[in-house]
Design brief:
By secondary structure, the chain is mainly beta. Among the domains are: 59 residues, Roll (SH3 type barrels), CATH 2.30.30; 83 residues, Trypsin-like serine proteases (Thrombin, subunit H). Helix content is 10%, strand content 42%. The protein has four helices and 21 strands. The strands form four sheets. Strands 13-12-9-10-11-15-14 form a seven-stranded antiparallel sheet. The longest helix has 9 residues.
C-alpha cells in the first residue's frame, strides 16, 4: 500500500497510513506509533500522489498552534507536548502569541490563574485556588480584530483534584464557548539553572500581568516536595498560572512565594503536572461525593466491634 503524506506547516511532513479523519484532527499510523494531528497544523494531505486540501471543522478554522512550529503530539487526548523544542524567542513575541491561553479563575472567596491545555476548554489551576468552592468562573481575554474581548464562563466542571500536588483540572462547559487557545507542556528537567523564564497571571487581580526572571534552582525542597524556584515575581493571584521557558512551553505551575523576601517564587514542575494528567482517573472528582478522590476503607473487624460496644 502506498503511504499517504501529510504536509505540515513550516515545510514539515508526516508519511504513513491515515486511519481516521475527524473534523478537528486526523490519526496517522507511522509504523511504530499513531499520531493525532490537529487540522490547524495541516497544509495539504497527499493520497497516493493526489493532493487534497485540509478541511475546516464545524466551527470554522481552528486557532493556529500558539507555541510551537513543530508537530505537537497529543497526549491522552488532553494536552500537547512538542516532539522537538521550538526556537527561543523574546518574551514580547511569546506573550502576544500565548497570552490568550492564560485565564483568571474566580471563586466567591478569591481568585487565581490558570491556563488551557487544549482548545476544548480543559485547564489547569491550583487546588488551593478552588478548594471548598462550588461556584467557579473563568475569565478569558479573546483576541478579536486586534482588540481584547473579555468573556466570563460560569459553567465550570471540576474534573480531577490532587490536594497533595496542589493541582486541579477543570473544564469550561458553556454551550456557546468557542475553541480556546492553548499552550503545550515542556520539560523542566531539560532546563538549566540560570535560564530565563517568565510567568503570566493575575497577581492581586491584575490580570494578564507578565513577570520575567531566571530559574534559580530546580530542586528546592519544601515540605518534602521538590519545586522550581524562580526570581520571576509571584504574588497572590498568580497561583495556578503557567511558568514558561523562552520557547513558549509551560515548565511549571506557580503556586507560592516567600512573603518575607523578594524574587523567591516557586512553581510545581511540569513533570508533576503530566503525572497528574496522565493518571487523572485516580484523582477524578464527583459532584455527588465531594470526598473523592479519597477512598475510605472499613476499619478492621475487631476495631469496628469495639467501637460498637462503646
Amino acid at each position: 500500500m502506498v503511504a499517504d503524506t501529510v504536509q505540515l506547516k513550516d515545510k514539515a511532513s508526516i508519511t504513513g497510513r491515515i486511519l481516521t479523519e475527524k473534523s478537528d484532527n486526523i490519526a496517522v499510523d507511522i509504523g511504530y506509533t499513531v499520531l493525532v494531528i490537529p487540522r490547524s497544523q495541516i497544509v495539504t494531505i497527499v493520497r497516493n500522489d493526489n493532493p487534497a486540501p485540509a478541511s475546516k471543522n464545524r466551527r470554522g478554522t481552528k486557532p493556529a498552534a500558539t507555541a510551537s512550529a513543530e508537530l505537537a503530539e497529543l497526549k491522552s487526548g488532553l494536552y500537547s507536548a512538542p516532539t522537538k523544542s521550538p526556537p527561543i524567542r523574546t518574551v514580547l513575541e511569546l506573550v502576544s502569541q500565548i497570552g490568550e491561553a492564560v485565564v483568571q479563575v474566580r471563586t466567591p472567596s478569591g481568585l487565581g490563574s490558570g491556563f488551557f491545555l487544549n482548545e476544548d476548554g480543559f485547564l489547569i489551576t491550583n487546588f488551593h485556588v478552588i478548594e471548598g468552592e462550588t461556584q467557579i468562573s473563568v475569565e478569558v481575554y479573546h483576541q478579536k480584530d486586534g482588540q481584547l474581548d473579555r468573556k466570563t464562563y460560569k459553567q465550570i466542571h471540576i474534573i480531577a483534584l490532587n490536594k497533595f500536588a496542589d493541582l486541579a483540572l477543570l473544564k469550561v462547559e458553556d454551550k456557546e464557548a468557542p475553541y480556546f487557545k492553548s499552550v503545550p507542556l515542556g520539560c523542566a528537567d531539560a532546563l538549566s539553572v540560570g535560564e530565563r523564564v517568565f510567568a503570566i497571571g493575575s497577581p492581586l487581580g491584575l490580570e494578564r500581568t507578565v513577570t520575567e526572571g531566571i530559574l534559580s534552582t530546580k530542586t528546592r525542597e519544601v515540605g518534602g516536595v521538590l519545586y522550581l524556584q524562580t526570581t520571576a515575581q509571584i504574588n497572590p493571584g498568580n497561583s495556578g498560572g503557567p511558568l514558561f521557558n523562552l520557547s513558549g512551553e509551560v515548565i511549571g505551575v506557580t503556586n507560592m512565594k516567600v512573603s518575607a523576601g523578594e524574587g523567591l517564587g516557586f512553581a510545581i514542575p511540569v513533570e508533576s503536572v503530566r503525572f497528574f494528567l496522565d493518571h487523572r482517573d485516580a484523582f477524578a472528582y464527583s459532584n455527588e461525593n465531594p470526598s473523592t478522590p479519597y477512598r475510605y476503607l472499613e476499619p478492621p473487624s475487631h476495631i469496628r466491634h469495639s467501637m460498637m460496644e462503646e
